[in-house]
Design goal:
Blueprint: H1 19-28, E1 34-39, E2 42-50, E3 53-59, H2 68-74, E4 79-93, E5 100-101, H3 112-115, E6 127-142, E7 153-169, H4 172-176, H5 189-196, H6 200-212, E8 216-221, E9 226-230
Parallel strand pairs: 3-4, 4-6
Antiparallel strand pairs: 1-2, 2-3, 4-5, 6-7, 8-9
Helix pairs in contact: 5-6
């Protein structure tokens, strides 16, 4: 994990990227990297050539689903690292109003809300992730045509203020390490939520990703929810339980 840093002032890149995207790309860029490199019909944020090997760094501030075609096309040939910023402190900047702290705070488990779009790729040996915990400013603009329940304000830019910690996920096992200690061999998302002190929705997203990636197996259901075991435990060798489903 990196120590807290104060990045240089962001600049807008050639593709009119947002300030957060541009600042993180600048932060990750190394001498010799090619920015906005055309590659096999796609444009990648950073193309890095090191030790006669090409690798790609993608700064993804929006949906992972939008990357699927690019990942499917490039992953078998290139090592790709997806950098995903998660805001743990957000300040709202509205015209003619004092800055206000947003009540919404992300955490490390926020990444699973995007991984649900590409869970089948988590086992790919060429794909890795960096979750970057950040503080940001959201610059907002008032627009009359917006619905009332959105307060009439739209975010027009997100500015990087500071980077706090960076978490590296090189393999599916690194994500599995986020499961809380002390889980029973057979567990539900309620167990993940209570043991890990995370929201039930985050626990459900984790379970969905791990099941689709083949890391856990659904073996039955209870009133609490679906029951899982880690895939290295063979369900055929376990004792039968009342909640198990049978053909």
């Amino acid at each position: 994990m990196s120590n807290e840093t104060q990045p240089e002032q962001p600049h807008i890149g050639t593709l009119n990227e947002g300030s957060l995207h541009a600042a993180l790309k600048q932060h990750y860029s190394e001498p010799g990297d090619i920015s906005e490199a055309p590659l096999n019909g796609f444009v990648v944020d950073l193309l890095r050539v090191k030790n006669n090997q090409n690798s790609i760094i993608e700064i993804q501030t929006t949906s992972f689903a939008s990357m699927r075609k690019k990942l499917n096309a490039l992953l078998d040939t290139y090592k790709i690292t997806i950098v995903y910023p998660i805001s743990i402190h957000t300040t709202l900047l509205k015209p003619d109003k004092a800055p206000r702290k947003s009540p919404k705070r992300g955490d490390l488990f926020t990444i699973f809300s995007e991984l649900v779009s590409i869970p089948d790729l988590l086992q790919h040996p060429n794909l890795s992730f960096e979750a970057v915990l950040v503080s940001v400013n959201k610059v907002q603009k008032y627009e009359k045509q917006l619905r009332r329940n959105r307060g009439g304000y739209r975010t027009i830019n997100t500015q990087l203020i500071s980077i706090h910690e960076t978490y590296h996920f090189h393999h599916l096992k690194d994500f599995m390490d986020l499961l809380p200690d002390g889980l029973p061999n057979e567990f539900t998302t309620a167990d993940i939520s209570s043991s890990g002190k995370i929201s039930r929705s985050s626990a459900q997203q984790m379970a969905y990703c791990f099941r689709k990636a083949g890391a856990i197996v659904e073996i039955g259901k209870t009133k609490v929810g679906k029951v899982y075991v880690k895939s290295e435990i063979n369900p055929q060798e376990r004792l039968e339980h009342p909640y198990q489903q049978h053909d």
